[in-house]
Amino acid sequence: MTSAQAIDKLERDGHGAYVESYDPDAQRMTLNMGPVHPATHGVLRLLLELDGETVMKCEPIIGYLHTGMEKECEDQNWRQAVTIVTRMDYLAQFSNELVYSRAVDRLLDIDVPPRGRYIRVLMSELNRLSSHLVWYGTQGLDMGAMSALFYGFREREVIQDFNEMVTGLRMNNGYIIPGGVWEDLPDGWEPAVESILALMSRRIEEYEELLTFNPVFLERTRGVGVISKEVALALGASGPIARASGIDLDLRRDAPYEVYDKLTFDVPTLTEGDVYARYQVRMIEMRESLKILRQVVDGMPGGDYKNMDPKLTPPPRSELNRSMEAVIHHFKLMTQGYTVPEGEVYEAVESPRGELGCYTVSSGGTAPHRVHVRDPSFANLQLLPPAAIGGLVADLIAVIASLDPIMGGVDR
Amino acid sequence: MAVARERLSPDEILERVERVLDDKITASRLNFGQADVTCEPDRLVDVVTALRDHEDTRTIFFTFLSAIDRSTFGNEESEGRGELEVLVHLYSPELVFHVNVHVPLPMDSPTCASISGVFRGAEWHERETHEMFGIAFEGHPGLTNLYLPEDFEGRPLLKSFRLPGRFVKDWPGAKDPEEAAGGGRG
After folding, report:
1. Which residue of A26, A42, A333, A377 has the lowest C-beta tally within 10 Å?
2. Which of these three, A61, A92, A108, is where a domain ends?
3. Which of residues 260-279 of A touch B (CB under 8 A)?
4. Cβ–Cβ of B117/A4 closer than 8 Å?
5. What does pTM read for this prediction?
């Protein structure tokens, strides 16, 4: 069976939306779920057609958070656009900054010092943990396990505190920039990461105790919302969702960026494709992230944390009092920013939700000509109709939580 | 799909892509280690189908589809200057390489073949590109707005669409003190 045929088993209604079977005269209830609904994880609206409790049609309607961020990037200079892309997928802010900065790095053809690379990986892996913790909490909550939410957010707070300690902000950090990272790690970062590692390896055990073998949780997730490998591939799924459906795909291993080629970790792949498989994949990923973080802390080199080319990086404050040249560089960078040579490049990283890509076009000016972000939530959300149709409304809730869409990324 | 991943050199990638696509494309080059090909709008479906199904390329992963407005690119002489362009990005997980398919289109009534029959995941991408650039995708099952309300006017990602907050208004007062009444002292 080819990939397209797998979805063709579902019919289409007059507007092209997938339905279990199309009968315009059938007595069905139309239900609007969202856009403001606690189980749709943001401003996702679902147009459902129900036959009793069974979902016959499910049409995601998006755009409630669309603010035209790609357009906005074209009006900012290269450095400022970091603050726009970080707001797209707001739970994976460091991945967004990383992919954009890597694209600009390549267009500029500059090197990032080893310490800068390690810091980038440190922050993105902590980010993966904190993002998966939000997923864990909401997945648990939607299945009726209220305590999962409290546990997930309790540990996420510790990571948020670390983000605040390093970048000064808890979200939308704007920390990873073209050329490296904005500031060096502050004193005391190492004990802080060590305590997160010690805490998390203990707490992940607790999470597993709470849900992994919980009969109610198993009943509601096993065999629910099954996504076959063919459907996942046809719709462009990536990340934990693809890996739970048997697609062995992880950019950190396949096309290593930054320092991932020096790190050893496993990529979990399951074949069931149901909500429970996606749960298991993410739980294993959290442990793998801890393994990566361990190696990053041990291997953190010294030296510069960003490219110190004065044409890219403002001079240190102390220089400004002594050197006229430093003042000129500072003025130029702050008023118009640097130019990037003509060219275009596609860069991709593995965000907590899958392949996050950035196609950046430079026309040689101080602002991007075009920044297109390939957000994994956007592609993954298309899997909702095939996964939910034919199931119960209660299962739909489980499926949404397991797809873990972030509407900021979907709508951009 | 756990397979031993072959590593191809950039030249091998380009050579394979050129061999598979043959006369379906009008230009090809290497760009940052990725194959960049250009084709006519009516050959796009052939191109992506060949890339997906051929044993030597196997780009089974559809990454994204979008468009670029090149009408204001650089200056008149810039190489990247042009009109509209549809961009399809494909990835081969087994051979670990990327292909960018560029489809140049005219600015007035741009029309391109839909690839949603090849990759179902392109449906939303095409709806987004349609509303943002005004490109019609022939053969799409339901080409309606994805993000914008139905009554929205304009194509936001075209360079001719200016954000209302970005209009520069002239300073309402006098620029020189001498011009102002009272010689700037009043």
Report:
1. A26
2. A61
3. 269
4. yes
5. 0.91
